[in-house]
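Protein modeling request. Please complete all fields; requests missing the sequence field cannot be processed.
Requester role: graduate student
Desired output: 3D structure, token encoding
Chains: 1
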Amino acid sequence: MLFRTRKQMRLWDRIWIWFWPRRSFARSFRYIGKRVLRIPATPHVVALGLSIGIFSAFTPFYGLHVIFSMLIAWGLSANVAAAAIGTAFANPLTIPFIFSATYELGQAILHDGKESIPMHDFFELLQNRSCKELWSIFLTLFVGSAILGSIAAILAYILTFNATKRFRRRRSDWIARRLETCLNREGSKKKKIKYRIDAHDHRNR
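Delivered output (205 residues):
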């Protein structure tokens, strides 16, 4: 393969780069967006898959987002690759905000009256909690994530569906223009050849 790296990356390195790019998150997101638009499936299937992945990114199943999203996508006949790509919405930059927002919203809905748990203290506090308390925290996160994740998934579906249709329409128009240009060139070449043949025949008469 042309421009292929000589040194093969390990699986762990690939996973790490997926969540923490070497260059920049903006460039990685642009690359991911282009990959999504080029997935060979209908706009609905692609948009549904990506929205499932983004919904999964809001859930408290940390470490299982990819598997969770792929299973749901497979069950709903959505694009599995788009679902896996959508889980990239949960990354080191967004996870603290997702965690705080889902937990605060879950508390507001359940009215449990508990104090907020800062992200940097969360994993430390988990070590000193009973199973009942852990379940309460998980339920709070799950309720908040279900609402915020659904909103984000709906927005992602609408944006992805429209972007995919627009991208493919532009690509079809570009291909049509290129084909027309090639046909015009071929036509002009045939006309030149015919003109030369006619001129040659005229001189030989």
